[in-house]
Amino acid sequence: MSEFDNQLVLIADDDDSVLDLIRHYLINANLRVVTARDGQDALTKVKRYQPDMIICDVMMPVMNGYELCAEIHRLPVGHHIPIVFVTALNQEQDKIKAIQCGAVDYLVKPFSKDDLITTIRVQLKTKQLWRELQQADQHRSRQPSHSEFQGFCAFLARHYEHNDALLKILPDVKPEQLYAGAEQVAIPSSEVAESMAEFLKLSYVPYIDPHTVTLGTLPKLFCQKNNIIELESATDERLFVMSNPFIWEIRDLLDRIIGKRYHYRMLITEPENIRTFFAVAGHTHDDQHRKNKVIFINNDGQTMDVDAEIHPIQHLGDMLLRRAITARASDIHIEPKESTVLIRFRIDGDLHDVFSIKNETGDRLVSRFKAITGMNIAEKRRPQD
């Protein structure tokens, strides 16, 4: 017997053969099952049955999986129901959309029975752990130490010793007010985040590449509320990028959820970077697809559709231009390497590495800049060296 026996799982898929196969796997794993054949039917049954977990396809009639996921997270009970996509869509961009909508995992068809059941049990375990922690928090009386935050405020005061407006508000500012307070005295959020990273000796992340975000550990609502997100790691170490490490409750939860099972490392970024990643979740898949479509005419006169990725890529392009202006860079270099694309600024004649992004993100960024400068997709320019 398992502690997760008799949990109720909703399966949503318009393919009867897939629906029957998943139902067979789950019943044999001692799970209860309710099924739906389109997104609207699934939403109705979520409201009626309040399942413990949802397994759904992406491409369904009436309401697709992305839309269903967004609608479920608008329900009072929806934030606590883990959603796993099981779909034939296997592009990296499909996985990114799943994360942005709040899915906890993403399995590509064909999948194995073992992978499916393992995923379900892992996510039910994570859900149970979050529930236990939330219940325990209601009875906690421990208060955080403010010495670390006070030390950071002193660090800021030294760094901005000529900013009288900042020096005036620092004695009374609270951790959750830090970014808003800095904005009021004309200090960009990127500088606040970089200062936090320097003070705490952590790495600063100037941009969150959507292709590096990973699934399943932290609920979407928690991530959005607290500006925190998990990134892929090349090692067993877990990576969490957050905007404010001085909010003690977040670090305490990470210690209790992650720290007992894994070694993890914190990274710092400004709040806008995390908000931008989740911004597309409010749009339907079809609407987003239409908004992101840019048409180019190549040198042969043929039209080409290019997904300009309006939200994250526009944010990346805008952020890159702002940072280049702030750094007084004369030009920006987008240089493809073997496995990544390196972003570099030329400052006073010298090239400086800024950050790296994945190749697919680099391609989209170049397409974005070509679109706004009136170049066609096949056009190339030599560096002005």
Description:
The chain is of the alpha/beta class. The protein has three domains: 8-137, Response regulator (Rossmann fold); 143-274, Type II secretion system, protein E, N-terminal domain (GMP Synthetase, Chain A, domain 3); 283-373, Beta-Lactamase (2-Layer Sandwich), CATH 3.30.450.90. Helices cover 44% and strands 19% of the residues. The chain contains 15 helices and 14 strands. It has helices at 16-28, 39-49, 65-72, 92-101, 113-137, 147-159, 164-169, 178-184, 189-200, 220-226, 248-257, 271-279, 285-292, 310-326, 359-373, and strands at residues 8-12, 32-36, 53-56, 83-87, 105-108, 203-204, 228-231, 238-242, 264-268, 293-297, 303-307, 331-336, 340-347, 350-358. The strands form four sheets. It has a five-stranded parallel beta sheet, sandwiched between helices. A four-stranded mixed beta sheet has the order 6-9-8-7. Strand 7 (228-231) and strand 8 (238-242) form a beta hairpin. Helix 2 (39-49) packs parallel to helix 3 and helix 14 (310-326) packs across helix 15. The radius of gyration is 23 Å and the shape is globular.
